[in-house]
## 1
Amino acid sequence: MKKQPETEKLLEQLKVKYDAIGQDLDTQLEGLLYGEPITYWDYIQTDALLNLQIQRTTLPDEMVFIIYHQINELLFKMVLWEIEQITHHENLTAKFFSERLMRISRYFDMLTSSFNIMSEGMEIEQYLKFRNTLTPASGFQSAQYRMIEFASTDLINLIDARFRDTIDRNTPYEHALEHLYWQAAGKDYKTGKKSYLLKAFEERYKNRFIAFTKEYNSINLYATFKNLPKEVQGDPELRNAMRHYDYTVNVTWVMSHYNTAVKYLNHGKEPEEATGGSDWAKYMLPKYQKRIFFPDLWTEQELEDWGKDVE
Ligand code: HEM
């Protein structure tokens, strides 16, 4: 059989590749001879993926609840994947930054616009039954959600607004983590007593969060933006992409989630206790959390009115 010039070229490139790692090309080619061709189910791991939905009840809508949370976690992973490429990029351009940021916003737009799968897509009766089998667990314990926050902005912008003046860049990470805004969902600041929700979450992830915040301390999205040359920071497309991302994550998604919690937990006189036990009706509101990733990109008035326009 006469070898085509392309085949010749490919073989030469493969030879260079395998020589570089001290591997014999013929052995690799022979491997191809016996190797099974890849299939969709092997490549996408559909069997493993579709066996990850473990219900605790026989209520059909619990499957909707589980899968939608898993979809969120997969999209959170895509968000972190893009953030990592922006923040670890050797020679970052405004074009690359805003394009990737728009990808990330697209993922969060999808998370926000699809939240009605939760708010409209389950029976309240079924939810009020199966939720008792997952208490005290809560989406609050989504580690990737917290990592997206740590990778997006300086730690000071995630500190509970009541304690921000007492914390600066020299504050030990351990102490800073004790004053993050989300501590308020599970800690009584008078007694220091923590809920099981928060204790279990910290036991599992505290060290990983400290290592992650250290890694992103000076390369998070906000720090990366502020390190860009002034004229690049002025790029209107990039500024709009930053504002869109900030508002989508910290107001639009939060309100879709909050309205869903109201639908399922606020139908009696008193709001139902949340599975995680937080004072959710107050805690989950953007105007209360005041979580703003990129403060310099908003006017004084916009910062003042944060989250007030969506109530
Ligand atoms: C019926 C649907 C849902 C309801 C009723 C609901 C309710 C709640 C409530 C009440 C909280 C406050 C913490 C607590 O005490 O539990 C919370 C927190 C949280 N949930 Fe959900 N949730 C729902 C769906 C989801 C989904 C699909 C996700 C996606 C992963 C999610 C992610 C989160 C996160 C990240 C927090 C912490 C938010 C923060 O700290 O600001 N939730 N949820």
Note: DSSP finds 17 helices and two strands in the chain.
## 2
Amino acid sequence: MTGMGLGMSLVQSQALQLRQSIECSLSQNLAVVQKQMIALALYQKREDELVALYKKALARGDVRLYDKHGLKFEIALVLQKEIPPEILEDCGPAFSHVLFSGFEALFLGTKRALSRGSWLLFAAKDYKNVPEKFLEYWAVHERGEQITLGNHNLATKLEFNIAAKEKTLRNYVKWLEENEPDHLANVFAYQMHLALPDDDDFKELLETSQQSDEIQRLRELIEQTNWPYLILQKLSLYDKMNEKIDKSIKQIAKSVQLALEKYSGLEVITEIEKDLIAKFKEISSLRKYFCAIRHTPTWEYTRKIMENEMAERRSRIGLVYGGSPQKQGEFIDLLKKLGLETHSLPKKNIFSDNLTEAFDYALSH
Ligand SMILES: [Zn+2]
């Protein structure tokens, strides 16, 4: 407690300096500050929701102790419907949240603040009827995220190594392929770069952490073991399939450019929509291997071309319609008909800026 008191007064004077420097550059950075404030408010809201969710799980005896393979930690088992939708969307059925001091993050850096923070681990016990055994692997994954300060791929390596140790990896991978293909596919996006952080923060984590034995154990499980052979086998298969997907997405980019050259009006958007749906359908059999991370840059580039061209056409054609209220009315009706009333390029369905959403929209139409 005392440390806290002393720390607090120091922090306040520095906070004052911080506020003064913000004030003098307020006019320049108002937008930035407002964005930070909103982000902070959203973070605070998320934190309050998750602390309440953890307490609820605790009250009904659903905070479980995992104590195997030298790992020892607690995880809250929650119901899918209890998870805030945006968290389920962003993080999936298992996730973790760190309660850490904003001041520590400000002055010691986020990583150090994370390593000193207290982590709440969650997993949805009723998600797609996941078998209890596989739920444990999600728990281990979240513990791995904690220990590696948020490294998703090292956490996944740990998850698979524990499943391999328990001789259930083949069944687990099969379940993921059928129920959570993106989790598997995304592992292979940057499978190569897999070493534990060797910076000071991680070393401090080792020194300061009470459970340093457990962390040493985790280090062994992550660093001293290779990816299970089964996963490496899958890697080359997913690699091959994503090579094919890559070719198709690049062809999509080309056909969009050709359509923009061929059709001069705003109606080109309807032609492109039809063409995109057809082209995604051609690779529907590859959907389960689809690794969004790998193909998103090409999709963002394609969307940018469309967006810029459509914006240019919109202002040019708007001028052609002229200023009379009746003509402007006709122009707005055209934009509405084409779904362009709010954006120069729609941000949903086949034109979603989320490639997975665009792909799945095409397959369902
Ligand atoms: Zn993760």
Note: Residues 7-227 form one domain.
